[in-house]
Specification:
The chain has five helices and three strands, in the order H-H-H-E-E-H-H-E. The protein is an alpha+beta fold and about 100 residues long. It has a three-stranded mixed beta sheet. The longest helix is centred in the middle third of the chain and has 17 residues, at about 25-40. The model has no long low-confidence stretch (mean pLDDT about 90).
Length: about 100
């Protein structure tokens, strides 16, 4: 017979605890924001994005195209809201396009 004690803990909370203990929570969070950005803007705009990084709660984008930078500047609030809805938390408060 096994002497293990089983608990009713869901997998999501176990993974979150492992990430927190190993100091990987912040990096995982950044990767999720980048994944959601890619999903929100689509493949065409994603391919024109040279760099996508999260600094605190600021998402910094570097683009190859001037007109695309301008268009993304107009759509900042829509992009931020979509990312936060996908993540189910307020992960990004500001978007900077370079």
């Amino acid at each position: 017979m096994s002497t293990r004690k089983y608990t009713d803990t869901d997998l999501k909370s176990v993974i979150a605890e492992i990430l927190r203990r190993n100091g990987l929570e912040e990096r995982y969070h950044e990767m999720e924001v980048v994944r959601c950005y890619r999903e929100v803007v689509g493949e065409i705009i994603w391919k024109k994005t040279r760099e996508c990084k999260l600094h605190g709660k600021i998402l910094v984008l570097k683009m190859d195209s001037g007109p695309l930078k301008q268009e993304l500047s107009y759509q900042k609030t829509k992009i931020l809201d979509s990312i936060n809805v996908l993540l189910e938390i307020i992960a990004v408060e500001k978007l900077e396009v370079w």
